[in-house]
C-alpha cells in the first residue's frame, strides 16, 4: 500500500509543531486543523495512557487528520557522576523553591514501546519521531497500519538515515528552532554547530527524495513561502502557536515571548541535559555553562524546580522554550493566526510571481 501525499493531510502546507510539555494539546490541534493546517499532539513526557486520552479527546472534537509525536529512547551513555555534580550545584535552587530535586533515573525510554504498541493497535493518520530514527521494522509496521511516518533530522546524514530506514517524510529542523534540537545522537563536541534552516534545507533536498517539512524560527507566511521555494513541501511552526489561547503553555511562558526583559535565546543544556533553545533567564545564565550532557537524566532532575518556579510565578526559573523569531509572536487565536499566515503566504507567492 503506497503512502498518501504529505500535502493531502491539510488544505494548506502549515503544520503545528508537536510541542511537548503541555503546549500542544487537543484544543490547539483542533483549531489549527479546522483552519486548514495539520494539528499535532506531543506524546513526549506523557504516559501511554495520557497519550491515548488526548488522542480520544481530539477525535471527539475533530474529524480532520492529525499527527502524534514520539520521543525515541535514549542510550545509556550519561556519566552519573557528572549528573551528581550538577545536582550539587542545584542545591541552592532546591532551597530557594522549597522543593527537592527529581530522580535522574526516572526513565530513559519515555515508554516508547508501549506508545508504539498503542498507535499500531489504534492507528492515527501520522506519527513523527524526535531524537533518533526508528528501526525499519517499526516504520514498516506503521506503513502496514496505514500511518504516515515523519522523522526529524538536523543534518543531511540524519535525513539520509531516515530515508534508508523507510520513513515517509523528513522534518528538517534548523538551529533557529525553539525547544530541543532533534539530533539523532547527542554529541557535546557539536554544541552550537547546528545549521540554519535555509542553509540546511537545500542540502537535504539535493540528496533526499522524500517530502520535507521545514522547521525552525518560522513566524510569518512570507517565511513559509521562502522554505517552500527552497525545497520544502510544508512548514512547521511552534513558537508562533505557543502564545495562542488554545495553547496549553503556561501564561508566564506566553508573556515572556514578547517581554522586553528577555532579549535573546540560547541553546542550553541547563534544563534537560540536551541542547534546547530557550529565552535566556537567570537559570540559564547561572547553570547553563555547567550543565552536563545527560538527557533525560537532567530533565528529570530539574523538573520539580521548573514546576515550582511556574507555580510561584517566577519565569526566571522556568524553561522558556522559544525559537529565534519569538518577538514576532502574535497574541491571536489559532484560527486567526492561520488566516494571517495563509494571507501572507498568498501575498508572498503573488509578489514572487
Protein traits:
detoxification, 13% strand, alpha/beta, 14 helices, 2 domains, 11 strands, TIM Barrel, oxidoreductase, eight-stranded parallel beta sheet
Protein described:
Its cofactor is FMN. The structure is a single chain. The chain is α/β, with parallel strands linked by helices. The protein contains 14 helices and eleven strands. The protein has helices at 26-34, 48-61, 80-89, 91-97, 112-121, 136-145, 156-165, 197-207, 221-229, 239-242, 251-256, 282-287, 297-311, 334-352, and strands at 14-16, 39-42, 66-71, 126-130, 148-153, 169-173, 179-180, 212-215, 234-237, 265-268, 276-279. Strand 4, helix 6 and strand 5 (148-153) form a beta-alpha-beta unit. The longest helix is centred in the last third of the chain and has 19 residues, at 334-352. The radius of gyration is 19 Å and the shape is globular. The two termini are 37 Å apart. The model has no long low-confidence stretch (mean pLDDT 96).
